[in-house]
Amino acid sequence: MAVSRPVVVGVDGSATALAAVRWAAVEAGRRGTGLVVFHAELCDDPDLLPHGKPPGDAELLMEPARRLLRQAAETARQAAPAVPVRMCVRLGTAAELLAALSDEAGLLVLGAHGLGGARGGAIGSVALRAAASARCPVVVIRGSAAVDGPVVVGLDDSDGGERALAFAFDAAVSRGTGLEAVHAWHDGRPGREAGLREQVAAWSRKHPVVPVRVHVVRVRSAARALSGISAGAQLIVAGARARGPVAVGLLGSTGYWLLAHAACPVAVAR
User: Fold this and answer.
1) Of 220, 228, 226, which is closest to residue 185 (Cα–Cα)?
2) What's the rounded Cα separation, in Å, for the pair 247 and 268?
3) What average pLDDT does the segment 123-152 reach?
4) What is the chain's Cα-based Rg?
5) 118 pLDDT exceeds 50?
6) What was the pLDDT predicted at 4?
7) What is the pLDDT confidence band of residue 244, given thresholds at 50, 70 and 90?
8) PANTHER family from the entry (predicted)?
């Protein structure tokens, strides 16, 4: 029997990271899998960067990280007592290490801001880079999830849009809630409305327990339309275009806007 890949959550001691830990622990419970709480410890010595056990005095460098992880693990156990929790600390830069961990993860979860984020920035650089470069779906925790709200997903006819629909329906099933699918257009025609409605209907037939509403709205900014709906949602889902270091191009302008401004947690499906 295949083993479910764990949920991985990045922690740095910030309040937003602990919020991500609580969200990730509950999500791991929904998925019936384990949780990995992960911390990246920066180190200026290149001899310590291979990610095995650090030698000698470098053990002292790791003790504050282990204390931080123990706190995060306890937070996770309080949120979801039945979920097995594993702690992981590695030497290096967070974004690169998270991208590497994503190869073995079912989901990567991060807070929108960490201790190292720029004051006043809309989203931290680690969360943004991870959302663009991870090889698994990423959820960035921001705003507040409406307890009884729907899952919201943006509709388009790209491969990323299809992955977003798949992720969104699974999320709605696991939460026992409905799905709001939104297609926005502004160029004087409703675009591929009929095709998009059939795309949603095909997924709905696979998940008949999920109540679905499709919204076709004429607005100049799809991102603003989606972020407006996000205020009453549990989760909003966008599709990634590809993978790589240039976040705006690979996430698309809508995905980038949602990560920076949505009023609830944002999932980037891939």
Assistant:
1) 220
2) 12
3) 89
4) 19
5) no
6) 85
7) very low
8) ADENINE NUCLEOTIDE ALPHA HYDROLASES-LIKE SUPERFAMILY PROTEIN, USPA DOMAIN-CONTAINING PROTEIN
What distance in Å separates the CA atoms of residue 27 and residue 38, rounded to the nearest whole number? 16
As a residue count, the chain comes to: 270
For the full predicted model, state whether its pTM sits above 0.85.
yes
DSSP 56-115: TTHHHHHHHHHHHHHHHHHHHHHH-TTS-EEEEEEES-HHHHHHHHGGG-SEEEEES--T
The answer to whether the Cα torsion of 147, 207, 110, 232 is positive or negative is negative
Q: Where are the beta strands (DSSP E) in the chain?
A: 7-10, 35-41, 85-91, 107-111, 138-141, 151-154, 179-185, 212-218, 235-239, 266-269
SS3 148: coil
Amino acid at 195: G
